[in-house]
Design a protein that fits this description.
Structural class: mainly beta
CATH superfamily: Jelly Rolls
Order of helices and strands: EHEEEEEEEEEEEEHE
Number of helices: 2
Strand order of the largest sheet: 1-11-8-13-6-5-4
CATH class: Mainly Beta
Number of strands: 14
Mean pLDDT: 83
CATH topology: Jelly Rolls
Low-confidence stretches: 1-44
Shape: globular
Distance between the termini: 25 Å
Strand content: 35-45%
Helix content: 10-25%
Radius of gyration: 16 Å
Largest sheet: 7 strands, antiparallel
Length: about 190
């Protein structure tokens, strides 16, 4: 696959497994260190923390670099109708999506792709993309970045003092401020 190709697939069985795994990650972690000895440990870092995204998205962190030997960072996004990030490029990570429930429309390198539950999409680094819930009901999508290291960027979605959800204006301002430090280029609003 070249940098300009995009992989989109529909895998219902794989999706079911991913959903079960993401539910479990918030409680226990099973890791296989390089020595191939399995261990089980409690995760005390960002697992389960909530961040907010533009358009009303709620992101629950399900995997962090500290638990995956820096191989990836992942969150489960619940997007209301109209929710999704602005058009952007990652210069340091690839991004993988798996639609868990509902429908998400992806805009990847100039192509709009509508994905129902079970649809996956892969975005190589350097490719302009975004996603949006263009349906009339909430949707959930697993979002995985590889390698890890981008998790601090999503602190743009931390609640305001008192626990209130930041407005879209505050979120977009925070995104713009943090993006350069994490190798992201914001290209503008979503074309969807």
């Amino acid at each position: 696959m070249t940098n300009n190709e995009v992989l989109v697939q529909n895998h219902s069985e794989e999706q079911r497994i991913l959903e079960q795994a993401s539910k479990c990650l918030g409680q226990l972690r099973v890791s296989v260190p390089r020595s191939d000895k399995a261990s089980v440990s409690r995760v005390i870092d960002r697992i389960g923390q909530i961040r907010y995204g533009p358009g009303g998205g709620v992101y629950r962190i399900v995997a962090t670099p500290s638990q995956t030997q820096n191989t990836h960072f992942a969150f489960e996004a619940t997007e209301p109708p109209g929710g999704g990030p602005p058009l952007h490029i990652h210069t340091r990570e690839e991004e993988f999506f798996s639609v868990i429930e509902g429908e998400i429309t992806f805009w990847i390198d100039g192509k709009a792709i509508r994905g129902a539950a079970g649809t996956t999409a892969f975005v190589p680094r350097g490719v302009p993309h975004c996603f949006k819930n263009c349906s009339d009901r909430p949707a959930r999508v697993l979002v995985v970045f590889t390698p890890g290291g981008i998790e601090g960027f999503f602190d743009y979605g931390e609640p305001l003092p008192g626990g209130t959800v930041p407005s879209d204006e505050v979120l977009i301002e925070r995104i713009g401020a943090l993006a350069p430090a994490f190798g992201l280029e914001i290209l503008g609003p979503s074309p969807l």
